[in-house]
Amino acid sequence: MTGRRSLLERRFQLSARNTTPRREVLGGITTFLTMAYILFVNPAILGAGEQGLPFAQVLTVTALVAGVMTIAMGLVANYPFAIAAGLGLNAVVAFQLVGAQGLSYPEAMGVVLTEGAILTVLVLTGFREAVLNAIPLELKKAIGAGIGLFITIIGFANSGIVVPGAEGSLLALGDLDSTRIAVFVVGLLLTAVLVARRVAGALLIGIVSTTGLAIVVNLLAGGELWAEVGPETAQVPAQIVALPDFTLLGALSFGYPAKLGILAAVLAVFTLLLADFFDTMGTAIALGNEGGFLDERGRLPRMDRVLVVDALGAVAGGAASASSATTYIESASGIESGARTGLASVVTGLLFLAALLLSPLAGVIPPEATAPALILVGFLMLSVTRDLPWDDHTVAIPAFLTLVVMPFTFSITDGIGAGFVSYTVIKLASGRIRDIHWMMALSSFFFLLYFSLEPLRRLGALW
C-alpha cells in the first residue's frame, strides 16, 4: 500500500495539492456521475434525422473517446478536468453540417477532424492568444448562450411538447393528452429539482429515472417489458452487457469541400473551431478558479498542456465519429468534492471505459428522457448572459442577435455570422473602429461572403 501511495504521490503530487487518493477517487466518481448523461445525450443528437447514426455505436465511441482523452488529461496536465463529446459542438455536426448543409456523417466528421488538427497547430504555435484576443469576450459568451437556446429547442422538439404550428403560426403546443408528454413533464420537473438542489449526477439521475417511468408507462399501456430481438424504446433489452461495437471508428471522409464549396467549407471548419477553442479557454479558467489552481495573475499553469489534450480530443472525436470532444465544466462537481489532481481524471476516464460494455442500455432511452437534460443544459449555458454589458448597445445588440438568430433560424453558423457582422458594422458606424480587431473584421468579411452565396447563385441562374 505504501509503495502504491508513493507512486501516486510522485506521479500526481498529492501532498503538494493537499489531497489524498480517497478524495481523488471520490472526486473522479462524482465528475463521472455528473457528466455521464453525455453517453445518452450524444447518441440522441447524432442519431436524430434520417441519416442519424446508430444509437449503440455512438454510445460506444462516445465512451471510448471520453475515457481515453480524460485519462490523457490527467496524466499529461495533472488536473481533474474531464473530456467528452461537446454539447453544442455535436449539435453543429448533426443539425448544421448534416441536417442543413447536406453532408454525410463521414464528411461531417472530416470537418471535425480538420478543426481539431487546426486547433492543435494553433495551440502548439502559441497563436491561441491572438485568436483569443480577436473575438470580444461578450460575443464569446453570447455564442455559448445561443447554442444553449439552440439545444433547448432541440430538447423541446424531441419531447413532443413543441410542434410545428398550423398555418399562420410557427410553433404550437403538442398534444397534452399524450403519455409521452406526461413522461417528459415529470422528467423535466424531477431533473430541474435535482439540478436546483445541486445533486451530483442530477442529469444522469433524471435520464435514468425518466426512462424507468417510460418503461412502466409503456408496460401499463399494453407494451412488452422485455425486447425479444434487441433494445427498443422504453423496453428493457434482452441483455445488459455486450461487447462494444467499434464500427464507427475511422468512418470519415474529407470530401466536404467538394460538396459545400471552398468558402462554405472554410466557414464550417471556422464555426467549429471558434466554438471549441473559446469554450475550452473559458472552461479551463473557470475550473482553475474553482480549484484554486490559478496563479497571482489569474493564469492557469500548464494551460498549454490542457489545450493540447483538448485539441487532440477534437481530432479523436472526429476520427471516432463521436463529434468533437472538449473539456467539461461539469468537472467542477469533482473539484467541489475534493479532487485536485489528474488522478481524479484517471478515475473518471476508467469509468467511461467501463461504460463501453453497457451499449445495450442505449436503445432503452426514449427521446422524452433525454429531452429534460438537453433543456437544462441549455439553461446552464444561458447563465453567462448575466455578464453581458446590456447598457453598451454597440456590444449588446450583436450579442443579442447572436443569441436569437441561432434558435430562430435553427442555424448556429447564421447566429455567429449575425453577431460578427453586426458587431463590426455597429462599431464602425459608432466611430469605435479601434474596438475591432483585424481578425474580427476579416471574419466578418468572410461571413458577408457566406450570406451572399445564395443570392449570388440565384443571380447567376437568372443570367
Essential attributes:
two-stranded antiparallel sheet; 4 strands; 19 helices; 463 residues
Q: What does this protein structure show overall?
A:
- With 463 residues, the chain is mainly alpha-helical.
- The chain has one domain (18-453).
- The protein is 66% helix and 3% strand.
- It contains 19 helices and four strands.
- The protein has a two-stranded antiparallel sheet with strand order 1-4. Strands 2-3 form a two-stranded antiparallel ribbon.
- A hairpin with a 6-residue loop joins strand 2 and strand 3 (171-173).
- Helix 6 (105-125) packs across helix 12, helix 9 packs antiparallel against helix 10 (202-220) and helix 18 (412-429) crosses helix 19.
- 54% of the residues are buried.
- Mean pLDDT is 86; it is low at 225-232.
Total number of strands: 4
Secondary-structure element order, N to C? HHHHEHHHHEEHHHHHEHHHHHH
Q: Specify Rg, calculated over alpha carbons.
A: 22 Å
Gap between N and C termini: 80 Å
Structural class: mainly alpha
User: What is the mean pLDDT?
Assistant: 86
Q: Could you give a short account of the major beta sheet? A: 2 strands, antiparallel
What is the total number of structural domains?
A: 1
State the share of residues found in helices, binned by percent: 55-70%
| Overall form | globular
Count of individual helical segments: 19
| Residue windows where pLDDT falls under 50 for at least 5 positions | 225-232
Strand order of the largest sheet: 1-4
